[in-house]
Amino acid sequence: MTERIVVVGAALLDGGRLLAARRSAPVDLAGRWELPGGKVEPGETPDRALVRELREELGVGTEAVRRVPGEWPLRPPYVLHVWTARLITGVPRPLQDHDALRWLAPHEVWDVDWLDQDVPAVKEVVRTAWGDGPDGHAPSA
To answer: What CDD domains does the database record attribute to this sequence (predicted)?
Structure first.
């Protein structure tokens, strides 16, 4: 049995918004949106991988906050784990594998064409970050 390789995705949250990144490569993924991130390297913890990937891909300093419940299959042997993350330094810009970034308010999360494998993860991020209201907001008290 092949060992699974964890890919970490960042639910980078700032000012009540979620960052989405549009893929520029590979060709079959180009033009669709994802949570930025990448593979956990041997000997690396997932939270450190997340911070490293966001520095490499977006040029920002971040802090991994908590793992979003769930695991989502990618192409074998990869599985996606998502972590919420906080922006510490810098302004995100697309440096690797992306050609655009977009900050999405709760009511805008579904305005972009997410990669199929990211959709269930994004749904869980919306649920855990903003509650179960119709637009992603927690119901008013």
So the answer is: NUDIX_MutT_NudA_like (cd03425)
